[in-house]
């Protein structure tokens, strides 16, 4: 299992880090060409694209990974169903622009929805080939293709932005990415379409996919309601500022957590009946993520101004929102890993329950913030909701799934909390310099790295990590 994790993490790291760097650079360039309002329009329509992608998946992807008994002919039948479903959803998406234009009082959504329908189709039909590659643990191909598609997306978006295509530049880039992923995954897996629908394979994965889909369905609303309400009740510009801050707060997740969560389910699904082994992996992953995430949250809070100015001076209104959201970075990092753990233990029923509770709390937080009429309040109450979700998700994992105690989980957070406190004291006492924001960011980044390394030594985490790399189990278990 260790070798599988090592290989999976290696290729996933290459893919994730390269993709994030490409996306960040493209985002910086586009942010200096396009306005916050244009980004707000794209953010608005993207939440509907994500929803239809969810409908196109309906839990099929994780089900193929989990079910090792599926034959290739059965997977081809599922692919045929996926293609028909994706085509039907794309047709519906073509006409989605009309109600959107009415709700947001902007007719631009009508032509946008027609373009994005093509993008939706390709995202839908790549679900089965991608799941097949992950099931075979072909992380190398998946991640190298992801990097390549991100480069193509960036090039297309930037070229069209310079050509004056406004928000269409982002949309066309996204479409080019989806097309690239599908072509490569389809060719490499040799997936064939069975034009005659066979319901037997779908019934075989129904139990798992049902709970997975329902979780994704309700989780979608809890994660995107803020974007929908801000764009509809405050303004598209406010949504642009909010979305920029939210996206920056997600970068640690994209760089670190998604690296791990991408390999948890494909690898740990082999240990479905060994719950204790899954628990130990989760506790160690949580400790690692907290060791990075808790200090990082403090650093991002005190460096929000510098990070936002990277995108240009016209985004300064995003700074207070990012400061608030920064406090939830570590929470979101650990929460992101819980889904794969539920899946690995074949407990999508608990995953669904966690999703329902998460949706209720997130909606309450978002609506409360919207009532105040400011994006900063939306961020504040969303952080509170994330924190409460962190508690309920880990209760379901530790107590309900692992038949253990929540205190066993709390213990892995103690040393990371000490390291975060060290960061807070240092940054609180650190003076502000009247220098260029990039120089200030470089100084703060150096301070963060230095204090983090000192924290590793003081808490003994450095010795533990060193022991793990050398395979010294006696030191690792301490």
UniProtKB/TrEMBL annotation:
It is found in: Cell membrane. Pfam families: Polysacc_synt_3. It is a multi-pass membrane protein. GO terms for cellular component: plasma membrane. The chain crosses the membrane at residues 9-33, 39-60, 81-100, 112-134, 141-161, 167-187, 281-302, 322-343, 350-372, 378-397, 409-430, 436-458. Keywords: Cell membrane, Membrane, Transmembrane, Transmembrane helix. Belongs to the polysaccharide synthase family. This is Lipopolysaccharide biosynthesis protein WzxC.
């Amino acid at each position: 299992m260790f070798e599988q994790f090592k290989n999976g993490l290696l290729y996933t790291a290459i893919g994730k880090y390269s993709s994030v760097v490409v996306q960040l650079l493209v985002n910086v360039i586009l942010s200096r060409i396009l306005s916050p309002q244009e980004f707000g329009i794209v953010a608005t329509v993207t939440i509907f694209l994500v929803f239809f992608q969810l409908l196109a998946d309906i839990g099929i992807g994780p089900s193929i990974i989990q079910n090792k008994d599926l034959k290739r002919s059965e997977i081809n039948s599922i692919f045929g169903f996926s293609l028909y479903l994706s085509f039907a959803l794309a047709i519906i998406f073509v006409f989605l622009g009309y109600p959107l234009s009415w709700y947001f009082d902007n007719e631009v959504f009508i032509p946008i929805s027609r373009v994005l329908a093509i993008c939706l189709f390709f995202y839908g039909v790549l679900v089965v080939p991608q799941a097949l590659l992950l099931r075979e643990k072909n992380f190398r191909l998946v991640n190298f293709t992801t990097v390549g598609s991100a480069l193509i997306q960036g090039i297309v978006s930037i070229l069209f932005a310079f050509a004056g295509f406004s928000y269409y530049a982002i949309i066309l880039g996204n479409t080019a990415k989806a097309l690239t992923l599908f072509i490569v995954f389809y060719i490499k897996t040799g997936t064939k379409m069975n034009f005659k629908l066979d319901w037997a394979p779908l019934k075989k994965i129904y139990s798992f996919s049902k709970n997975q889909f329902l979780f994704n369905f309700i989780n979608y609303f809890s994660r995107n309601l803020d974007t929908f309400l801000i764009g509809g009740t405050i303004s598209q510009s406010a949504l642009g500022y909010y979305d920029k801050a939210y996206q920056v707060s997600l970068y640690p997740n994209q760089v670190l957590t998604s690296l791990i969560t991408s390999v948890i389910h494909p690898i740990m699904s082999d240990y479905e009946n060994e719950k204790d082994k899954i628990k130990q992996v989760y506790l160690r992953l949580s400790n690692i993520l907290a060791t990075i995430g808790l200090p990082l949250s403090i650093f991002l809070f005190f460096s929000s101004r510098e990070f936002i100015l990277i995108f240009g001076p016209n985004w300064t209104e995003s700074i207070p929102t990012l400061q608030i959201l920064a406090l939830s970075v570590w929470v979101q990092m650990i929460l992101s890993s819980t889904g794969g753990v539920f899946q690995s233990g074949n407990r999508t029923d608990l995953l669904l329950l966690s999703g329902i509770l998460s949706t209720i709390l997130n909606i309450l937080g978002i609506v409360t913030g919207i009532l105040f009429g400011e994006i900063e309040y939306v961020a504040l109450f969303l952080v509170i909701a994330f924190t409460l979700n962190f508690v309920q998700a880990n209760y379901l994992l530790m107590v309900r799934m692992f038949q253990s105690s929540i205190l066993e989980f709390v213990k892995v957070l103690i040393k990371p909390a000490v390291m975060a406190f060290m960061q807070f004291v240092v940054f609180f006492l650190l003076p502000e310099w009247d220098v260029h924001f990039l120089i200030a960011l470089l100084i703060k980044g150096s301070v963060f790295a230095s204090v983090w390394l000192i924290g590793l030594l003081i808490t003994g985490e450095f010795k533990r990590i060193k022991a793990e790399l050398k395979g010294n189990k006696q030191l690792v278990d301490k």
